[in-house]
Amino acid sequence: MSGRYNLPDPLTLIHPRSLKNLNYHLQELVKGRLWLKILIGMMLGIVTGLVLGPSTGTLSQEMSYTIGEWLALPGYLFLAMLQMIVVPLVFASIIRGIAAGEDMEQLKKIGLRTVAYFLVTTALAILIGLTLALTINPGTYISSELVQGTMTSNATQTDTSEFGSFDVAELPGMITTIVPTNPLGSLATGQMLQVVIFSIIIGVALVSMQPVQSKPLLELLGSLQEVSMTVVRWSMLLAPIAVFGLISKFTLNLGIDALMGMLVYVGTVLLGLLLMLIVYMLVIIVVTRRNPLKFLRSIRDVLLLAFSTSSSAAVMPLSIKTAEENIGVRPSISQFVIPLGATINMNGTALYQSIAAVFLAQAFGIELGFGQLLLIMVTVVGASIGTPSTPGVGIVILAMILNSVGIPTSGIALIIGVDRILDMSRTAVNVTGDLVTCVIMDKWVTGKKTANEEFIEVANQEAQRRVHDEDVIVISPGE
Questions:
Q1: Does some domain include residue 1?
Q2: How does the protein's chain sit in the membrane according to the entry (predicted)?
Q3: Cα 57 to the chain's mean position, in Å?
Q4: CA nearest neighbour of 204 among 330, 75, 112
Q5: Contact 450, 331 (CB under 8 A)
Q6: What does the DSSP 8-state code read for residue 141?
Q7: Sequence-separated (6 or more) residues with CB below 8 Å from residue 413
Q8: How far apart are CA 446 and CA 49, in angstroms?
């Protein structure tokens, strides 16, 4: 059989109607599903970063860095838009959230119970981190040559020495700084903890005033809040492209090799974060009797965005929207708890910092006694309260914690290479903690809904019905 077979072009075997139906089904699949669009952007970003990374030999190190910066440009713009709107949104949301209660006793209940809950869960997160680190001993898996290399790194020592050591005598001054002496300056520079404190003071003052006197300012803040949420909705259209660019740059710069020598440490932190997530789900089951899987499904958009941006502050607007529309939390709760939680409720960060401190002590051969472990716990709790909710800030706060117990800050060079992936993971846990707190406080703090809240609840129910309708994929019959 010497004759040739005349094989048809494979593309001619695909009927145009099949391509049309496939395109239709794909559009229906992603329609209204921000989480799926973000997930696709993440996966494409990982593939792009691995293909264009210098480890493949396709591009030089310099060219990979340049391409990574350009790919990340939509992500930078996305983060800038969100950070631009965070301060006015937080300012308006906290004040309106407090004023919506219209009851000083209810406000006192919300505030005291929320702060107490935050402190308890932060302490629990630190205990989980210390227990895992002392049980697994991740610092013993690091080679002595690598540790000695960090000891001789003057650059790293110089970069971290500016943070100084923790001194108990400085604590009163640190507490004093949380009250803004120049509120406009705090708003302009984005000092979130001071903005939150100022907003709480203004909100409490409005509750104590007559409705006729407080109504004009509340209406103005309501308009400001609505404008902020409109900008947030616009920015969400850019989210999948932003995630693609940020993940591409991250994968380009880090690569796979940087993770290999730190797998035990990374695994310990991720296991701790997973245990903290399980604790949250147990709280959801016990306190609210909700299905934890349905709860996670309702907040998946926020979690994926928090993982991608590594910033609790950046996803704060979406967190408030999700709390009210997807999980049915009263605005008076969500608009108070989430901005406050994004500032002082950093359970994932606290867990990470406790593990990192023990890991580096083990790597340097430093024995930590009970007093030092207790000091780590107290310092981490204090640091987590004022930690800015922006990418990478946890590694800066870690320097202060290490100094407080006499661990060389040069050891940060050991973990800086893998901090980005851990930063992304702990941010998702931080945001989950804030949303769980919203549900808990909504259950614990009962109160009569205001007319405004009743209107919002009806609108949220309608929005949930629309989301449910969009989640149903309608398959049209083939032609």
A1: no
A2: Multi-pass membrane protein
A3: 34
A4: 112
A5: no
A6: G
A7: 149, 150, 153, 156
A8: 49
Cα–Cα dist 223/89, whole Å = 11
- Ranges in the chain, pLDDT < 50: 1-2, 11, 13, 19, 22, 26, 29, 149-150, 152-165, 258, 448, 450-452, 454-456, 467-468, 470-479
* CATH code, domain carrying 369: 1.10.3860.10
pLDDT at 225: 78
Cβ 297 vs Cβ 74: under 8 Å = no
On whether residue 13 sits in a domain, the answer given is no
Pick from 379, 356, 399: which is nearest to 132 by CA?
Answer: 356
Q: How far apart are CA 473 and CA 253, in angstroms?
A: 38
Q: How far apart are CA 248 and CA 67, in angstroms?
A: 9
User: What is the largest distance, in Å, between two alpha-carbon atoms of the chain?
Assistant: 99
Segment (H or E) for 111: helix 104-136
Asked if residue 219 is part of any domain, the answer here is yes
User: How many helices (H) does the chain have, and how many strands (E)?
Assistant: 24, 0
Distance CA 362, CA 370 (A): 15
State whether residue 81 is helix, strand or coil. Answer: helix
Q: Are 100 and 450 in contact (CB under 8 A)?
A: yes
Count of domains forming the chain: 1
Q: Is residue 236 part of a domain?
A: yes
Cα dihedral 347/352/357/361 (nearest 10): 140
